[in-house]
Design goal:
This protein is 3% helix and 36% strand. By secondary structure, it is mostly beta strands. Strands 1, 3, 7, 9, 10, 12, 13, 14, 15 and 16 form a ten-stranded parallel beta sheet that branches. The longest helix is centred in the first third of the chain and has 5 residues, at 58-62. The chain is globular and about 40 Å long. 41% of the residues are buried.
Length: 193
């Protein structure tokens, strides 16, 4: 399809129950894929994607081939119609731009994978907006991304551990909503600019 693809649903199940026929669902295009599973819906991305009312596992993420993906909210203002808590476990969006808008927190699950693939989220330009935090003290969100814009609107800090170089605040500054919340962004394989 040309243009944007938008899926809005309270309950939406897309699956292939016939293992003999292989994966039949593939989302490709030159526009954006917008996923709006509903306000407050818990989202799980990557790995087994076991915990979440809306979940996309590794196989399902591999079937998405678009230049940009937005999960929840209004991508231009990083507000409106947010999803609930977002859990990331080896969520691989390739080089696609990714926007996630959450009315709770955005975090990874499980221990940090070993190098050279020490990430829970891989994508191009990433925009994250949450109410209660991105990553946490002692459990940073492990990333392999090109650039990051991140904001929290309530009590909660921003904790990112990037595997290589990272551009910060390309479209908006990295900010927290509450005074004195911590922002900690580290890189292990390149410059932070």
């Amino acid at each position: 399809q040309d243009g944007d693809i938008e899926l809005v649903a309270g309950d939406l199940v897309i699956e292939n129950n016939d293992a003999t026929r292989g994966n039949q669902i593939e989302i490709t295009g030159s526009g954006s894929l917008v996923l709006l599973p509903g306000a407050g819906t818990t989202v799980a991305l990557g790995g087994g994607a076991a915990v979440g009312a809306f979940a996309l596992d590794d196989v399902e993420l591999e079937q998405i081939d678009v230049p940009a993906v937005r999960i929840g909210g209004d991508g231009s203002t990083l507000s409106g119609d947010p999803v609930g808590a977002v859990r990331l476990d080896r969520a691989d969006f390739g080089t696609a731009a990714l926007t996630i808008i959450s009315d709770a927190d955005i975090a990874d699950v499980g221990p940090k994978p070993p190098p050279p693939d020490a990430w829970h989220l891989r994508a191009g330009a990433v925009r994250l907006a949450s109410v209660t935090g991105v990553g946490a003290t002692g459990n940073s969100l492990d990333t392999a991304i090109a650039s990051l814009d991140a904001q929290t609107s309530g009590a909660g800090g921003i904790f990112i551990d990037e595997t290589d170089d990272l551009l910060l605040g390309v479209n908006a500054p990295i900010t927290t909503g509450a005074a004195n919340e911590e922002i900690r962004v580290t890189t292990t394989g390149g410059p932070l600019t």
